[in-house]
Amino acid sequence: MKLIFALVFISLCLSFLPSLIARGAYHSSLPSGFTDYSYANSSRRLLEYKQAQSSVVDITRGYMTNSDLERAMKAFVQKCSNISRIYSIGKSVYGFPLWVIEISDKPGVEEAEPAFKFIGNVHGDEPVGRELLMLLSNWICDNHMKNPLARLIVENVHLHILPSMNPDGFSLRRRGNANNIDLNRDFPDQFFPVNDDVGARQPETRAIMSWLRKIQFTASASLHGGALVANYPWDGTEDKRRNYYACPDDQTFRYMASVYSRSHRNMYLSKEFQGGITNGAAWYPIYGAMQDWNYIHGYCFELTLEISDNKWPNAKELPILWEYNKMSMLNLVASLVKAGVHGRIFSSDTGRPLPGSIIIKGINHTVKAGRVFADYHRPLVQGERYEVIASAPQYKSKTTHIWLGEEAMTVDFILDPEVTTEGNNLLRSVCDCTYGSKSRFAFVEFLWRDHLEVYFVLIVILTSLCFLLKRRLKSNLMKHRQSPKRSVMI
Ligand SMILES: *[C@@H]1O[C@H](CO)[C@@H](O)[C@H](O)[C@H]1NC(C)=O
Ligand SMILES: *[C@@H]1O[C@H](CO)[C@@H](O)[C@H](O)[C@H]1NC(C)=O
Ligand SMILES: *[C@@H]1O[C@H](CO)[C@@H](O)[C@H](O)[C@H]1NC(C)=O
Ligand SMILES: [Zn+2]
């Protein structure tokens, strides 16, 4: 009897051994925060080992590894060089670059167009999004000359695609990043300021936050797995209870989420979620979510899309999942152009773009105009009446009533300065070095034609003034070397 027990025990130990070794390789032996560049190799070794051995690793078969993905993205921008570029927004804990593809007829060039971003693989063990985003990129590249929807997107939107926000989590095959932090709980929260410690924030989260400071996105979507539903803000409630917690743009978000679910093969047929959409907090409240932060601080309308019931399905299902989500992804991006109110804000005194902001009466949410062209893009529900208010500091606000029919509307605003004392205006145009070239030309022409003598006297005076000013500036600079004020030179 004892012998049999001993034999059973020994054989059990032997049979568990391979999986124990395999699990050990999941964890970096380095303390958190250190860069472990060997992970790609160890996971590859693990992969090779496991492909022969166990069933756990079979799930990765047919999926791109992180290096496969990087290669695929670089190959993509080579193939599609005139409508795309690649750039990195930062690095993961393990030092993997967070690559982004931008698709546009003028990639990397500022235009008066809305920008949309797709983020995949926020959770390491939800890899469907990163695969679909590469399929989406390739489909747009292959079809933008012949398909109207693809062309519309390329010509009128700047589409930014981050297939993997969490490459470390992917290689570790787990939800969190290398420090085992859930990145969709790592953003500053509006109700519970638990994540306000900048030093403790994960590098992947910080990368997204500084990305939003550089690019003004109109809308975005992150792709997840484990359910089939389009989720919209708020994700959290003030009292931590689970119930519908509407954000100011509830109607707008319901509309955008429905664009996704209704274009999907079966999302809107959901038995669990009516119409295939849900308010985040009505499903289950979470705090530190990316979508709430985007809406509040990024002025960006973000959805959280759960695109497959199975978090990590067999790779054979990827082409089907792509077919099911393809029109949804395209229509959501295209809705930025096909719906809502758009336009630019100008100043009436200089005629130049005025980066002000847009508010819709009754909706407590501001949309900022672009810094360069002062273009604004404001998603709204079609078929409704709105009061659009444009404002900018030191300018009088302007209001207009619109009725948004089937299509998008363009409304440009020209704002008048609030108080215009003569001196103020004169000062502004004299000090303004980027003053419109047309009017500068007219000024010179005026002098040249009728006041040649005045012109010469002016030149002499200005030259000597410049000389004096330079000398003074030089001595001032020497004096104030340490002073931060030295950059103020008019
Ligand atoms: C992987 O291992 C090879 C040699 O085995 C080495 O040359 C390479 O630099 C390693 N790559 C990484 C990312 O550590
Ligand atoms: C991209 O390049 C192809 C071939 O050179 C050209 O036919 C096409 O018009 C270009 N597309 C854009 C958007 O510039
Ligand atoms: C509008 O929203 C801000 C926060 O974004 C809040 O402080 C303010 O009280 C709100 N105003 C109204 C009228 O609800
Ligand atoms: Zn997820």
Automatic annotation (TrEMBL):
<dbReference type="InterPro" id="IPR008969">
    <property type="entry name" value="CarboxyPept-like_regulatory"/>
</dbReference>
<dbReference type="GO" id="GO:0008270">
    <property type="term" value="F:zinc ion binding"/>
</dbReference>
<keyword id="KW-0121">Carboxypeptidase</keyword>
<dbReference type="GO" id="GO:0006518">
    <property type="term" value="P:peptide metabolic process"/>
</dbReference>
<keyword id="KW-0472">Membrane</keyword>
<feature type="active site" description="Proton donor/acceptor">
    <location>
        <position position="306"/>
    </location>
</feature>
<keyword id="KW-0325">Glycoprotein</keyword>
<dbReference type="InterPro" id="IPR057246">
    <property type="entry name" value="CARBOXYPEPT_ZN_1"/>
</dbReference>
<feature type="transmembrane region" description="Helical">
    <location>
        <begin position="452"/>
        <end position="469"/>
    </location>
</feature>
<dbReference type="GO" id="GO:0004181">
    <property type="term" value="F:metallocarboxypeptidase activity"/>
</dbReference>
<dbReference type="GO" id="GO:0016485">
    <property type="term" value="P:protein processing"/>
</dbReference>
<dbReference type="Pfam" id="PF00246">
    <property type="entry name" value="Peptidase_M14"/>
</dbReference>
<feature type="domain" description="Peptidase M14">
    <location>
        <begin position="62"/>
        <end position="336"/>
    </location>
</feature>
<dbReference type="InterPro" id="IPR000834">
    <property type="entry name" value="Peptidase_M14"/>
</dbReference>
<keyword id="KW-0732">Signal</keyword>
<dbReference type="GO" id="GO:0005615">
    <property type="term" value="C:extracellular space"/>
</dbReference>
<feature type="signal peptide">
    <location>
        <begin position="1"/>
        <end position="15"/>
    </location>
</feature>
<keyword id="KW-0479">Metal-binding</keyword>
<keyword id="KW-1133">Transmembrane helix</keyword>
<protein>
    <submittedName>
        <fullName>Peptidase_M14 domain-containing protein</fullName>
    </submittedName>
</protein>
<dbReference type="InterPro" id="IPR057247">
    <property type="entry name" value="CARBOXYPEPT_ZN_2"/>
</dbReference>
<comment type="similarity">
    <text>Belongs to the peptidase M14 family.</text>
</comment>
<dbReference type="InterPro" id="IPR050753">
    <property type="entry name" value="Peptidase_M14_domain"/>
</dbReference>
<keyword id="KW-0812">Transmembrane</keyword>
<keyword id="KW-0378">Hydrolase</keyword>
<keyword id="KW-0862">Zinc</keyword>
<keyword id="KW-0645">Protease</keyword>
